[in-house]
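Now for one record:
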Amino acid sequence: MLSLREVNVHARNDRSTFLSTLPAMQSDRTAALAIVGISAILFALAVPFAGTPLVQMPAFVASYQSALAVSDIITAVLLLSQFSVLRSRALLLLSTGYLFTAAAAVTHALTFPGLFAPTGLLGAGTQTTVWLYMIWHSGFPLFVLAYGWLKDGNGGNKIEGPTQRSIVVAVLGVIVAMIVIGWIVTARHDLLPVLLRDGRYTTAMIGVVSFVWSLSFAALITLWLRRPHTVIDIWLMVTMCAWLFDIALSAIVNVARYDLGFYAGRIYGLFAASFVLAVLLIENVRLQASTMGLVGRLREQSAFERDYYGKRLALYGAVVESSNDAIITESLDGRITGWNRAAERLFGYSANEAIGRSIDLVVPEDRRAEARGLLNRISSNESIAQHETVRIHKDGRPIDVVLNVSPLRSDNGEIIGASKIAHDITEEKQAREKLRREIEERERIFETSQDLILVTDGYGNFIQVSPSVKDILGFNPEDMIGHSAIEFIHPDDLDRTREEMRAARRGQTKRSFEARYYHYDGHEVSLNWVGNWSEPVKRHFFIGRDLTDKQAAEAQLRQVQKMDSIGQLTGGVAHDFNNVLTVITGTIGILSDAVADRPELAAITKLIDDAAERGAQLTKHLLAFARKQPLQPREIDVNALVLEAAKLLHPTLGEQITIMPQLTEDAWPTLVDPGQLSTAILNLALNARDAMPDGGTLVLETRNIFLDDGYASMNPDVVAGNYVMIAVSDTGSGIPAALLERVFDPFFTTKEVGKGTGLGLSMVFGFVKQSGGHINIYSEEGHGTSVKIYLPRSTGMQETEYEQPQNVPITGGNEKVLIVEDDALVRQYVVTQVKSLGYAALEAANAAEALVIIDADKDIDLLFTDIIMPGNMNGRQLADEATRRRPQLKTLFTSGYTENAIVHHGRLDSGVLLLAKPYRKSELAKMLRTALAS
């Protein structure tokens, strides 16, 4: 495996940066202190002899000034070279200071008397050179002061714009400044104070020298305080120390020109100028040596890299040719320049056929603009990843590919083309599409399933819950997700559920079992579960089918079977008992004639005859319940029969009970035994009287009714069709809910002993069933009872005015309806019917739940509520409270009682809408629209 060897191209130490930014090390400080110490010792030794006159040597001045100027110019050039890279304003000022000292030294030498002319060149006067010396020695400390204030660890504030312009400005500034200064100290030297008279210093000279010396000292202190110190800072401080010794020896402690102090001070000045230059030159030599070493190592690196990249190029070529993906290179105008073997296999063209031709060779016509767009993006230095598109095989078939496109560059970095990697995803895309359809189908099944689908982890925590949970358990999916199933399963079914989960994890798939879950309102819901375990994803999958309808249907079927069984039993008993009674009643007459002359025996025969008559009536009732009594049906007008029954009931029921007939117009005729129907109404009225010992209201009502398939599905003994309803409703004490299922059983009664046989309602039940009808009872303790008889409509009649509106198309809507019903089975039926009409349906089991929903959802348009409900608030009170909270909310009531019975009970105000149970879909649709439009 090839690897690139790393060659160290750095210098051996970390001092290859610029001295103006390189932090000073302890060795720098030690060397500087040593030089300052030696200078101080020499200065101390020279001070006592500073005024000693020496031989005048003008050539010394010329040599000294020349060396000083050259040294300062070289130093300035080296510093300016650093400035051109670092762009430091402080470094530019320091370089300018050295240029200034060089220019001042040259001007001072030209004007010095006795060097080039007896009195000096440039029109120099007696005070010219001494003033030039003072200006020169005060100017450089000023530049050092400015450098010290502007510098920082990175070389100071940066200059914007070209550095060449700043350098030119600095040079020209120094020249102009020197010209102005030279003009002042030559042409205008008479205006300046006298500093030197007869070769000796004046008092003014002492003041000026003291000021110049103070500037140098201030520059030294500034450099010391402006930390951190760089290498240049350290050697500038050494320079300023030497500068102080220079001024002290040559202008303070000496006496006149050409004494020991004059020569020693200038020697100090020359050394001061050389310190920074020497450090810069030494550093340059070191850098040059490092550069030569670096060049050597770079050459070695270059040779190694040529060999390395040559091998890599060969390796890459092998990789390209052996790649399973097509690798294609093309120029920016779309000409193919590279075509590997995988491209030959993918597109069917050989390299000879493809190279040199346009990429349109494999691009469909409708995709060529796209291909040109890709090249345009590549030319803009953009890389393209995972671009799915279609290409064409040589044989014309389309190929789904994914492209990764990158810019192809020349040696100088210019983009000259594109490199494409094409991967065939035809089969992968087909598989993805198949998977997408499968996932979509599964999601559709999950979302629309009427069964409850649950997904849990291995610990029984819900991961997914199907939306059907709202209809089955009353919860929203988010109410269960993240929670443990233990919170929802009936405690008695937990162990069985855990056993089934363990069995599923052992590989026993599709386990079927029953378990009860708690509904949102607290009641139990029985579900039949099919469970499975997926080992790859560590998930349990359950499908639960709601057994509520099935159990209700089974209960109704059991009730029907029970009633049929009892009917068969009672029918058989009544038949045999009638045979016995026939013998008794037949022989009692013979016996009665035989003992007519014996009063005491005649009374006994009369008692036996009365008992036989009572037995005959009992068997008649039993045969009616068993649906084996002889009926004489004929087509009758139920309104006329009910009115006749009402007349007969007035004296029977008494004045404390008000009878209110409420008869519908155009009531349909029905085929029924009128005598038996009258007896049934009489029995129901007598039961109602017994339930109202303190008086009340008895409502006799007729109505044309259509019982639809939905109602028939909830009552297995009902056939959908047209019926005439006869309702007998009272305002009595009502029947407890626990007894409602037994009221039609023969000999069952809640009356006291001797107050009834318990055959009244069972006789009515048998008569209605034998007539092909249906009977239902609605009752609430403390509110009353309503018994509804549904008799089939007699055929062969024309449509009445009532029927005609029932045949118009059913109209629905898209409003939101809140359904409040305490019976879970009825509530589910109503919700289904309302949704089938297009409405959005919400549901609640009682008034408290309904108010929570009303407060949470401001878009509810209609409250559809049962009137009689358990709890602290009935339907009417719920409607009043809902209207108080939402004044615009419409209300529609429903009840098992007749509308008129409810009105006269005082439950509703006049004009309030009520839909009496049961009702067909057309009636529901009509009343919903009426209520919403009210």
Observations:
- The two ends are 87 Å apart (CA to CA).
- Residues 96 and 170 are 6 Å apart (CA to CA).
- The chain is about 50% helix and 15% strand.
- The chain has a mean pLDDT of 78.
